[in-house]
Design a protein that fits this description.
single chain; alpha+beta; five-stranded mixed β-sheet; three-stranded antiparallel β-sheet; 10 helices; 27% strand; globular; disordered C terminus
């Protein structure tokens, strides 16, 4: 079990962190007369492990059951983690078979042995996020026989791998919310996809003071930087008529929409090798013992989301309390409506969105990630396929928040809530009571 001090970084996949990217499993094939080696048998074990890990894309990852975090009654600065099962972001089974005790004191700042005048004393409060990560421990050593083929003398080798766990405590600096590297990476990718909008405004190519030839060259440069992946017909449109300011905006819209579709469908989310499954956030306070020593004492343990990740699909990343509606972009309106409702967002209706006439209008619709909060209502904005696009029907391209939900209505307490008077009983005309 380990303790580390971490700060929000660039996320999994950078700063030397290993990722568990999607890869095709390799199954060993056995045949009559084959000379089996340790590589063949190890390959079989690796294939089983890789196949099992693929379930993270179908089912997800997180805490499956158990793993409750409680203050340790025997150690003021410790916690105990109850037995349970979790699945890591790489699809590894993390099993805590027995109750595990963990001392959080070393994870908090220690007082300086000799304080100098004017030096700021260490804080008396410490906040930690606790997680559990997959770990392998070699076990059951046996004497290796017949090592001459390997050019070595006989020696002991571990014959078993215990799929164990390690507890990881991470300092929370400044009381920040749990880091969401997947959401930060997603926002960066979205900003890159719509970056031609900002560049068009910075370069001033949508104005009247730019020639049609310069507008055409600017669009071709953007396509050269990011070749069209879905709307090849845009290449034909570039040369069909003069690129006027209005036509430039229309072409820019289709260019950005093509980049967004590529971004939305850009592969399966990678897991981070060794990333702990979040279990709880813990608050400690430094107190003085009867003998004058100062020690950390656990004061509160919060085992609920977002400090704990229940088992479930990775889904589309979003900020706290938000749903990412990008997963229904370019769907037909009738299908998108059902999917948005499934995400817990109310659909007020649909509205056609004519091809924009200004770059600023495109930015208002597409410039920010399409996310919505709990209880929000949105209108689906759709675009009908123009002539020459080869596509038919309408597609959802954006969302507009219902003005009624942009500002939450004030809550009314039970003491001040007005109760409507009872309705008068209806008098029957047939003489019956």
């Amino acid at each position: 079990m380990t303790s580390t001090l971490t700060e929000p970084g660039c996320g999994c996949g950078c700063d030397g962190e290993r990722t568990c990217e999607l890869r095709a499993p390799v199954r060993p094939r056995f045949f009559c007369g084959q000379l089996l080696t340790d590589q063949d048998l190890s390959g079989l074990a690796a294939w089983v492990k890789d196949k099992r890990a693929l379930a993270r894309y179908r089912e997800g990852w997180g805490v499956v059951c158990g793993l409750d975090v409680r203050a340790d009654p025997d150690r003021a600065s410790g916690v105990v983690v109850r037995p349970g099962h979790a699945v890591s972001s790489c699809g590894e089974d993390v099993v805590v078979a027995g109750q595990a005790a963990f001392d959080l004191g070393p994870s908090c700042p220690a007082p300086a042995p000799c304080a100098t005048p004017g030096e700021e004393p260490p804080p008396d409060d410490c906040v930690l996020d606790l997680g559990v990560a997959y770990a392998e421990v070699a076990d059951d050593p046996v004497v290796a026989l017949g090592r001459s083929a390997c050019g070595q003398a006989g020696e002991c080798e571990n014959s078993r791998i215990v799929e164990s766990f390690r507890l990881v405590a991470s300092r929370v600096l400044g009381g920040a919310e749990p880091d969401r590297p997947d959401w930060r990476r997603w926002q960066e990718g979205y900003a890159e996809a719509v970056s031609p909008l900002e560049r068009a405004e910075a370069d001033g190519v949508a104005g009247d003071g730019v020639s049609a030839a310069d507008r055409l060259a600017w669009l071709r440069d953007r396509i050269r930087d990011h070749p069209l992946a879905h709307f090849g017909f845009v290449e034909d449109w570039l040369t069909q008529s003069e690129v006027t300011p209005a036509r430039f905006v229309s072409l820019l819209y289709w260019l950005v929409q093509d980049r967004l579709l590529s971004f939305y469908a850009d592969g399966c989310p990678p897991g981070c090798a060794g990333e702990p499954v979040p279990l709880a956030r813990i608050w400690l306070h430094r107190t003085r013992t009867p003998d004058g020593r100062r020690q950390w004492v656990v004061k509160a343990v919060d085992p609920g989301p977002p400090y704990r990740r229940p088992f479930g699909p990775a889904g589309w990343p979003a900020g706290p309390g938000k749903a990412n509606l990008g997963q229904v972009v370019w769907h037909r309106p009738e299908d998108a409506c059902l999917e948005v409702k499934r995400l817990g967002v109310t659909v007020s209706g649909t509205a056609d969105w004519p091809i924009p006439s200004t770059v600023d209008e495109i930015r208002r619709m597409l410039g920010s990630p399409p996310v919505s909060g709990c209880g929000d209502a949105v209108t689906l904005r759709t675009v009908a396929m123009p002539d020459g696009a080869f596509l038919t029907g309408a597609r959802v391209v954006g969302f507009v928040a219902d003005p009624a939900t942009e500002k939450a209505a004030p809550r009314v307490s039970k003491a001040t809530r007005r109760v409507p008077p009872p309705k008068p009983a209806r008098r029957r005309t047939d003489g019956k009571p």
